[in-house]
Write a structure and sequence with these properties.
By secondary structure, the chain is α+β, with helices and mostly antiparallel strands. It has helices spanning 12-16, 20-29, 44-50, 60-67, 82-90, 103-107, 122-132; strands at 3-10, 33-40, 72-80, 116-118. The chain is globular and about 35 Å long. Bound molecules: inosine-5'-diphosphate and magnesium ion. Inosine-5'-diphosphate binds at residues 54, 59, 63, 93, 111-112, 114, 117, 120.
Length: 140
Amino acid sequence: MTVQRTLSILKPDATERNLTGAINAMLEEAGFRIVAQKRVHLSEKQAGAFYAVHKERPFYGELVSYMMSGPVVVQVLEREDAVAKYRDIMGATNPANAAEGTIRKRFAESIERNSVHGSDSADNAATEIKFFFSDCEIVG
Ligand code: IDP
Ligand code: MG
């Protein structure tokens, strides 16, 4: 497996509790390089577009409201097999099911306020990275 990139979001529950440094420390400890990063406050349109894949799910409206409720930190993470490795360290969507040592086990408050987003495939990673970053903003 070659070096790969994935899109990460530190969600409003994480910025609210001042956890961005603690999460970044876990990421760097796990071998990820943060090759792009910015703090943004998503509009309803941006949050809705980013999560458009979940439009039909019952929690979509609440998810969009939550993601625009405070600032987020969007990041591009780089390492070998980054997409799968980040899903591993994130932990299960519902923190009640997340494994020991994962970000969500340590920090998530609920299935919705679960601290981090990570792309779920290489194709989606490419799409999601483009959603937030231009090529010249990513410094490997
Ligand atoms: P993932 O973030 O682990 O990939 P997805 O199924 O893609 O999980 O869901 C996207 C986000 O929507 C979750 O991270 C979480 O914030 C929220 N979410 C997922 N399922 C529920 C639910 O059943 N109730 C409320 N929010 C949910
Ligand atoms: Mg997902």
